[in-house]
Amino acid sequence: MIEPKLLHLPILEWYENNARDLPWRTPDRTPWGVLVSEIMLQQTPVARVLPVWHEWMARWPTPKALAAEPSGEAVRAWGRLGYPRRALRLHACATAITERHGGEVPSDHATLLALPGIGEYTAAAVAGFAFGGRHAILDTNVRRVFARAVRAEEYPPTATSAAERHLAEALLPELGAPRWGVAVMELGALVCTARAPRCEGCPIAGVCAWRLAGKPPHAGPARKGQTYAGTDRQCRGRLLAVLRAAHGPVPKAALDAVWEDAVQRERALDGLVADGLAQVLEDGTYCL
DNA sequence: TATACGTGGCT
DNA sequence: TAGCCAAGTAT
């Protein structure tokens, strides 16, 4: 096990000088702003989140404000961030916060975890970044940095392992855990990237086990790629784009026009309705 | 544990 | 250019 200080000091100093100025990190950030950013950032790059996050904060500065509007408005305002179920869950989250927590984002990890759309990572991130709680942050960036620096492997395992959690816990500093977490994330996002890592600019290059081992390429089987073209997901995306663009009920013909395969199209549309992302009105038209 | 779930930029 | 990849969660 590497001496934690050998990682802490260089990474924290690097973060001090290289952190991006992101609006959810400013001193005047709110827990709600942090929560919204974390949900939006799930599987979505910062650059695409930025403008939408600003729109949401201006329109819904509090959980109560979002909860006061129909969930369809959240889905529409989600725009093209992808995985629109997150918008639905964020709306449900705002409703739960309003009804169960007096409109205040909870600071406790377990309480956060019980909210819709919030899993292990997001609960730790909100508890840490918004409230200073001491929790291990274990997202894809942190997992990659640790895999390389400590385990000498190019990529972490497909699923988060107990060993990874133990390592993250072991490296957690007594003081300043949130800053440590965000610093490692930032290092993974800007330097220790998945492809073409910039080891020249890495503050821990001198102690990185993977680099010292000669950067051996990933051994195991190739990681399963995400197919998209022709899938139900693509079909759902097409259908939802039509509903988002329209500000009134949409005749079914308008949906039929964007996907050839009728069987797949019906299945996708039923799925959207079942998920609560789309609604069927009495006259057979559709809306968010 | 494996799978479903959007979207678009980058190499 | 086709695939890889991005601050995951729910089932």
From TrEMBL:
InterPro entries for this protein: Endonuclease-III-like_CS2, Endonuclease3_FeS-loop_motif, HhH-GPD_domain, HhH_motif, MIG/MutY
Transmembrane segments: none
Highest taxon listed in the record's lineage: Bacteria
Cofactor(s), by name: [4Fe-4S] cluster
Catalytic activity: Hydrolyzes free adenine bases from 7,8-dihydro-8-oxoguanine:adenine mismatched double-stranded DNA, leaving an apurinic site
Pfam family for this entry, one: EndIII_4Fe-2S
Kinase in keyword set: no
Top class in the EC scheme: hydrolase
Keyword Nucleotidyltransferase: no
EC numbers, comma separated: 3.2.2.31
Domain HhH-GPD, residue spans: 40-190
CDD domains: ENDO3c
Keywords assigned: 4Fe-4S, DNA damage, DNA repair, Glycosidase, Hydrolase, Iron, Iron-sulfur, Metal-binding
Protein name: Adenine DNA glycosylase
Organism of origin: Nonomuraea harbinensis
Taxonomic placement: Bacteria, Bacillati, Actinomycetota, Actinomycetes, Streptosporangiales
